[in-house]
Specification:
By secondary structure, the chain is mainly α. It contains 14 helices and three strands.
Length: 314
């Protein structure tokens, strides 16, 4: 069975070998071929320098011509040479591992070639029958389209390979990374602001719209009156206060700000402003009921409503 495998490998190698070589390499015995492969394998362990790999690649023949037991075989070295040259250009590409595997494959074939051979006529017929099956009809070598793709890929690797190995690449890479991070943070912040505005998160949390004046003060007052009619005194005080803020904000006394506190609204009014005194009393009533421990009742609601009317909300 081992000899059959060797024969298959040799036949495949013969079919893969390049044609039209100007001057065929001199024939060598199977033992010499095996020795050359063993020496080549030893040269790849430990890892050679790139320039050593380039010398090994240039020292290999285009193909080996082997005389074994009255038969002549040719084995191409193109795959090994390509892997060694790729490793010389780009040591971290994994091409050295591929070169070692190629040499190991050929070395196994060489050792099998040295074993006593049997008549492989039946095996060859069986192989021909297998390869003639429909599933093997599309098997072919490199097409012109594959060749163009490979050449384009190699060209891009050469172009960008210089960039990646440039001394300026670490700085450029850091700039690129931080630029992308800043862009991502900026987009996230923009999305959060948009979501904040569209979903009106502040309103959902505090019960106050994004801008207090977005809801007319009369709507605030109507809701406050409805809360008072329902005996919800604390809610009524709360709503009367925001009716006052909506009324003053609607007159353009300050720019809307969702995060402003009641005391900050007071500081926005000048001391001589006629709205300041009633808003001060209204704020004190609201804070003691809403944030303090004073219980709201009907009298506190009536007083709050009167302060709202003193502001001009009638």
């Amino acid at each position: 069975m081992r000899s059959v495998q060797a024969t298959l490998c040799v036949l495949i190698a013969m079919m893969a070998a390049p044609h039209g070589v100007a001057a065929p390499a001199p024939s060598i015995s199977a033992a010499e071929y095996t020795l050359q492969l063993q020496q080549l394998r030893q040269s790849l362990v430990p890892e050679p320098q790139p320039e050593q790999a380039e010398k090994l690649a240039s020292g290999l023949p285009d193909q080996w011509t082997i005389d074994s037991q009255g038969k002549t075989f040719t084995v191409s070295s193109a795959a090994i040479v390509a892997d060694l040259q790729e490793y010389a250009r780009k040591p971290a590409s994994g091409a050295l591992t591929a070169a070692r595997e190629e040499v190991d494959l050929r070395l196994a074939d060489a050792l099998a070639m040295s074993d006593p051979q049997i008549d492989a006529g039946n095996e060859n017929a069986r192989l021909a029958e297998i390869l003639s099956r429909r599933e093997f009809q599309r098997v072919h070598g490199e097409t012109w389209l594959d060749r163009i793709k490979r050449q384009l890929r190699e060209l891009l690797e050469r172009w960008f390979g210089r960039l990646l190995t440039s001394s300026a690449f670490p700085v450029a890479s850091r700039i690129l990374v931080w630029t992308l991070v800043a862009l991502a943070v900026g987009l996230l912040a923009l999305w959060l602001v948009r979501a904040y505005r569209e979903s009106n998160i502040y309103t959902n949390i505090s019960g106050i719209p994004g801008a207090v004046s977005e809801k007319p003060w009369r709507d605030w007052r109507a809701e406050a009156q409805a809360a008072a009619d329902g005996g919800r005194w604390r809610d009524a005080v709360h709503l009367y206060y925001w009716a006052a803020i909506s009324f003053l904000e609607g007159q353009g006394l300050w720019r809307p700000d969702r995060a402003r506190t009641p005391r900050e609204y007071l500081r926005l009014l000048r001391r001589e402003d006629p709205h300041r005194a009633p808003l001060t009393e209204l704020t004190r009533s609201f804070e003691t009921v809403w944030y303090g421990d004073q219980a709201a009742n009907e009298q506190s609601v009536v007083a709050t409503k009167a302060l709202l009317e003193n502001l001009g909300c009638r």
